[in-house]
Amino acid sequence: MLMGMRNKYVKLTEWMSMPHAEPLRVTFAQLDALVGGLPPSALRDRNWWGNTLGNSQSAAWLKAGWLVQSVELRTAHATFVRGAHRPRSDAGLRPARTGAPRTTWARDPILHGATALDDLVVRAGWSSVEAVVAANTVFLHPDTVAQAGSGAVFPVVRDPTRRGQLGELPDGRKVLFDDNATPTDVFLWAANRIKGPDVQFNHVWSRSKDPDSYTALWNLCCTPAFLAKTSDSHPGVVSMLRYRSYDLYGVLPEGVGGPLRPGHYGELTWAAMPPTVDDLEAVFRARMRSAPLRRASVVARTIGWVFSDGPDIAL
């Protein structure tokens, strides 16, 4: 069995020995087709991509003269650079400061967060990371979200370097540049709640430059801070949250097809939703009048928002 696994990566060595531009960016789908199927661990565990001679997969690219520079599990691709593997005894060495480029060698990660989380989940008696996240993720009630329609509440995009500034996008649309302050306000106001300790507000779809999605109620959820990272780095959690949003609200970002229903979706138990807000516009107006300097209030007065046709002079 071990010999069979080793042989399947011969094709990877042969392909990577061909001329390629550096850095070499390869999708998981390309590698899957090349070797006849990647194991599940390659899709969720960064350790699988370590530059370690003892592993059959890494031996394949090391033999061809390549090292893994980075791996993005969320976007399912790996980036390789040319370099030679060095034994672990060299791990603490550095070249003299002569101006010569440093030699690349393999290093083991100091800690693997995703693996640690998997271990904790199993030890705590949960069936999966997805089950833990679902049980602790709050979405808004569909009747509340429907009052704001399918667009964003405010014309805001993310750019922390210009937060609080008004500007225009390349298409001419006027927006406010912000960090996460306005999406947080939007969620809490729509929930008619205050922020709890150690929580984080997450985007289901990472479209921070899209003013139609960044403050859309259907694109937001709340998790404990210690689980928040999974909402953008754990493939199973990402697909689960996207389907949950679509299942509740029936809205997708422009140009995005309907997400597939995860196989285990029907077994998940979700955190309770806040009660429906009967008059969302009235709640938002009351919040903005009580906090006129909040960025949401500023952009509503100067550009407009979902419940106005232009600058809202009533605020």
Structure overview:
- It is a single chain.
- The protein has 14 helices and eight strands.
- It is of the alpha+beta class and about 325 residues long.
- It has two domains: about 1-90 and about 105-110, no CATH class; about 130-300, no CATH class.
- Helix 7 packs across helix 12 (about 235-250).
- It is elongated.
Strand content: 5-15%
User: H/E element string?
Assistant: HHEHHHEEHHHEEEHEEHHHHH
> How would you classify the quaternary structure?
single chain
Number of domains: 2
Query: Uncertain runs with pLDDT below 50, 5 residues or more?
Result: 1-6, 89-103
- Shape descriptor reads elongated
> Helical stretch count?
14
Helix content: 25-40%
E-strand count: 8
Which secondary-structure class do the elements indicate?
Answer: alpha+beta
In the sheet with the most strands, the strands line up as 1-3-2
Distance between the termini: 70 Å
Output mean pLDDT.
88
Question: Mind describing the biggest β-sheet?
Answer: 3 strands, antiparallel
Rg to the nearest angstrom?
24 Å
Pfam family, one: DUF7662
Domain DUF7662: 9-77
InterPro entries: DUF7662
Helix and strand topology:
Elements lengths: L1 H7 L1 H7 L7 E4 H8 L4 H5 L11 H8 L2 E7 L4 E6 L30 H11 L5 H7 L6 H5 L9 E3 L7 E3 L5 E5 L2 H11 L7 E5 L16 E5 H4 L1 H4 L1 H15 L30 H11 L4 H8 L13
InterPro entries: DUF7662 (IPR056079)
